[in-house]
Amino acid sequence: MTVNDAVARRITALLKEKGISQYRLEQASGIQHGSMQCIMNGRNKTVTLSTVILIARGFGMTLSEFLDDEIFGSDSLEIDA
User: Fold this and answer.
1) What span, in angstroms and rounded, lies between the C-alpha atoms of 4 and 11?
2) Domain boundaries in the chain?
3) Residue 79 and residue 13: Cα distance in Å, rounded?
4) Which residues share a beta bridge with 78?
5) Mean pLDDT of all residues in 27-50
6) pLDDT above 70 (res 81)
7) Which of 1, 4, 5, 29 has its CA at 20 to 30 Å from residue 80's CA atom?
């Protein structure tokens, strides 16, 4: 699984957990719909730290809270160097 896949899965889980739509997250985070769709559909090969920070803020959480999930601790997470 790539980092982008992990971010997309975390977003999906948080949308469900918080009961909000992707559109509402886009509005709260300031991320354009097309950019969010690229992340969610796996068309984005790399997601930037700045984007992840905006997403976390859109959820009303810190970056640390967003990343505090077992999906990011997986040894099978592919890291491009």
Assistant:
1) 11
2) 3-69
3) 22
4) 2
5) 93
6) no
7) 29
